Amino acid sequence: MLRRLGFDDALIEKAETAAQDNGTTIEQELLAEGSVSPETYYRRLAHYLALPFCDELDADCVTDRPRIDRLLVQPGGLRLEGKDGSTRFAIVPCAKNLAELHWRLSTRPAIRRAVVVTVPSAIRRTVWEVGARRRLSKTIHRLMIWEPRFSARVVFWGKQGFLLGGSVVSFFAGLILFPTETLLLTHLLFTTLYALTLLIRLASVRASAFPERHSGSIDSDTPLPVYTVMIALYREAGMIPQLVGHMKKLDWPTSKLDIKLVCEADDSETIAAIRATPMPPHFELVVVPPAAPRTKPKALNYALSGARGTFLTIYDAEDRPHPGQLREAWATFNAAPGTLGCLQAPLTIGNVGQNWISGLFACEYAGLFRGILPFLARHRFPLPLGGTSNHFRTEVLRKCRAWDSYNVAEDADLGLRLHRLGYHCGVISCETLEDAPVSIRPWIAQRSRWVKGWLQTLLVALREPGRLFSELGTLGCLVFLTNGAGVILSALLHPLLFVALFSTAAMMIHPDHTPSPLHQLLSGVDLANILASYWVFLRLGLSRMRPAEARQMRADALYLPFYWLMLSAAAWKALAELYHAPFLWRKTAHKPSQP
């Protein structure tokens, strides 16, 4: 049939070989290979069937119907209703059924007059447009309707607001009535919490970095599934050429790839850059109608309606993933039980040596993604996922209602929710390269968003503390709280430790004031906490970095106190924004990486 349609024998044989290797059809491989455009291919099919060809459909002729979103996954045919009451059908014919379809149309001329041939992308574009309003509403409110306790739409539940307000009033009342005792008790409590946050990091220092890699554990004859890659983009016009280039390097058959570039409808520059860049058919632009909240998770949830893959991963615009990352994730999923819902690939900073901010950022990422997360995954503790390079079983992701559109750290929130619903997360070793901010203002803006999202996640988790302990287990819950609340508290309190140290030193210098033994003890503990936190930060990060990475950032360790004070400033900024702008997404600007 393909020869009859005029396609070259060499092209057909190449597609046939790929189809045998990938468990697909010759038609799928012919279109995925890129030598034949979908428009050319389906135009020839239309000519063979003696049907009109149309590569653009009028959305005004289509009615949004229940389950129409199925056509985003399998665009077989679409009903078109004209203003004059006529009805036509836009179809995407299949080569293996072409002869039978030709015979049926020949015997039924009335049907032939009502049928046009189109391309799959035209049907998908039309369905995206027709169902936009309904899909957007469902996207935003999906989690809130399904299980309100998991949604950050309401920042404080009534009981939480009462307890928080009562605690603040009690603290200030204690300061007025019993100032010395209140400050001493507060100091003891916060010093203890600060010290507890170091325990997980100390345990991670001693743990090995990664589990055994599964990249070669699957039989080579096993057909690969379809893999969806989603990339949320906003004001990223300059990143499109680099992004497309790295997505093309992924070691996965193009006939089994479903790459979605997700943009806000009012981001005209990025949309224009995507449309101006030549891309294979497995790339698709998904345009999200503008609506609050303007967050990355809302955009991803919207695009999830059209995900075709059995597995799904997300990347950011600046990401340069290892080509073998999808294969390692797939092999790991296949070697694990069905309760493994997500895998986190390590994020590695590519611009380590640019300045001290990027150097310490790289050290922090090395400690987190190559030390702490593997440790947590090994013991099946809740995993605070990173914002990119998460690999999911698509079915599990949908069962969990995907991301919370109102949480600005949607990754950490989803990692916790997976555990609460009976799944667990793991890690893989193939890395994703990205660049760190190199100046203070964008660094603080990015970090304040992360901390704000963590605060949202903690508030959501602690709405029903008893239920949280039941779902995570006592040890798992304590690890989550220590790793979450402890890190935020340590960031908030870090400057106060210096204040306490300086005040004690001032008292010791002053001839009329001698600090009590308890004050001297607490000052010693404060100093130990500061030094221990610096040591663990550097020890954990440097022990997981490659020698070349470590050499580039060793001198940056001198700036570590400033880095922690920046972290504290970001944490206080996040705390303020949680009250007046809880859903504000501060965008981090990106530039193409330097070769």
From TrEMBL:
It is a multi-pass membrane protein. Pfam families: Glyco_trans_2_3. Its main location: membrane. InterPro entries: Glyco_trans_2-like, Glycosyltr_2/OpgH_subfam, Nucleotide-diphossugar_trans. Keywords: Glycosyltransferase, Membrane, Transferase, Transmembrane, Transmembrane helix. The keyword Transferase applies. CDD domains: CESA_like_2. It is found in: Membrane. The chain crosses the membrane at residues 161-178, 184-203, 472-498, 518-537, 557-575. Residues 313-502 form the Glycosyltransferase 2-like domain. This is Cellulose synthase/poly-beta-1,6-N-acetylglucosamine synthase-like glycosyltransferase.
